[in-house]
TrEMBL record:
PANTHER family: CAFFEOYL-COA O-METHYLTRANSFERASE 2 (PTHR10509:SF74), O-METHYLTRANSFERASE-RELATED (PTHR10509)
Catalysis performed (reactions): (E)-caffeoyl-CoA + S-adenosyl-L-methionine = (E)-feruloyl-CoA + S-adenosyl-L-homocysteine + H(+)
UniProt pathway annotation: Aromatic compound metabolism; phenylpropanoid biosynthesis
The protein's name in its UniProt record: Caffeoyl-CoA O-methyltransferase
One GO BP: circadian rhythm
Record GO terms (molecular function): caffeoyl-CoA O-methyltransferase activity; metal ion binding
InterPro entries named in the record: Cation-dep_OMT, SAM-dependent_MTases_sf, SAM_O-MeTrfase
UniProt family annotation: Belongs to the class I-like SAM-binding methyltransferase superfamily. Cation-dependent O-methyltransferase family.
Length: 247
């Protein structure tokens, strides 16, 4: 996604004044990243799943290939073993997670829609990683509540990826902060929300973009001041905010 740069020749935008390192200034640059560093290294099953998903009418929902690569590397860097994903769709981020985990790694995968997961499942099975996945169909919140009631789940997850209903992210955060271990990471996806966060109030936005924008703004504000986590918001994909639990 192209970065929102703003500013003019006479008046540079604030972020350009010191140490300006904005990377994605054009779609061509993004394409360059994909073609140079992402697609040539994309595991064959992920490529197959990406191509199958591209034919699905809701393909806009899929995790991008560069973000899939990022998640895969991140999980290896933090030696993740026990993970959770909220928002599976056809399973691109799920597969990138499953491929990164050791053979006895686990992913609790939650989605209200099993049908879309089943589009990707044969590819996940062929890749030999389906045994790591415990898919549960249904809304995530009640399941998180039941896990919160059982102390054995507290502090048990190394990594949690949240890519579902944006209007519940703060509700998820209230619960996930207890379920992720200290030193573990929660990744919230879409935290730049298609660049709409900095659009003027009267900008013509698609209805769902406008609806969820306020929730994403609230989430970003809350994470920025949450003393229980260290955070880093990255312009990968549609923006991902990593939260490392520290207390
Ligand atoms: C953006 S997609 C997930 C994309 C996925 N991570 C990927 O790599 O393709 C969002 C998903 O969240 C699911 N979802 C929406 N509301 C949910 C809820 N309350 N609980 C669990 N999943 C939900 C949707 O069914 C949809 O599959």
């Amino acid at each position: 996604m192209a970065a929102v740069n703003g500013g003019s020749e006479s008046q540079p935008a604030k972020h350009q004044e010191v140490g300006h390192k904005s990377l994605l200034q054009s779609d061509a640059l993004y394409q360059y990243i994909l073609e140079t560093s992402v697609y040539p290294r994309e595991p064959a099953p992920m490529k197959e799943l990406r191509e199958v998903t591209a034919k699905h009418p809701w393909n806009l929902m899929t995790t991008s290939a560069d973000e899939g690569q990022f998640l895969n590397l991140l999980l290896k860097l933090i030696n993740a073993k026990n993970t959770m994903e909220i928002g599976v769709y056809t399973g691109y981020s799920l597969l990138s997670t499953a491929l990164a985990l050791p053979d006895d790694g686990k992913i609790l995968a939650l989605d209200i829609n099993r049908e879309n997961y089943e589009i990707g499942l044969p590819i996940i099975e062929k890749a030999g990683v389906a045994h790591k996945i415990d898919f549960r169909e249904g809304p995530a919140l009640p399941l998180l509540d039941s896990m919160i009631e059982d102390k054995k789940f507290h502090g048990s997850f190394d990594f949690i990826f949240v890519d579902a209903d944006k209007d519940n992210y703060l509700n998820y955060h209230k619960r996930l902060i207890d379920l992720v271990k200290i030193g573990g990471v929660i990744g919230y996806d879409n935290t730049l929300w298609n660049g709409s966060l900095v659009a003027p109030p009267d900008a013509p936005l698609r209805k769902y973009v406008r609806y969820y924008r306020d929730f994403v703004l609230e989430l970003n504000k809350a994470l920025a001041v949450d003393p229980r986590v260290e955070i880093c918001q990255l312009p990968v994909g549609d923006g991902i905010t990593l939260c490392r639990r520290i207390s």
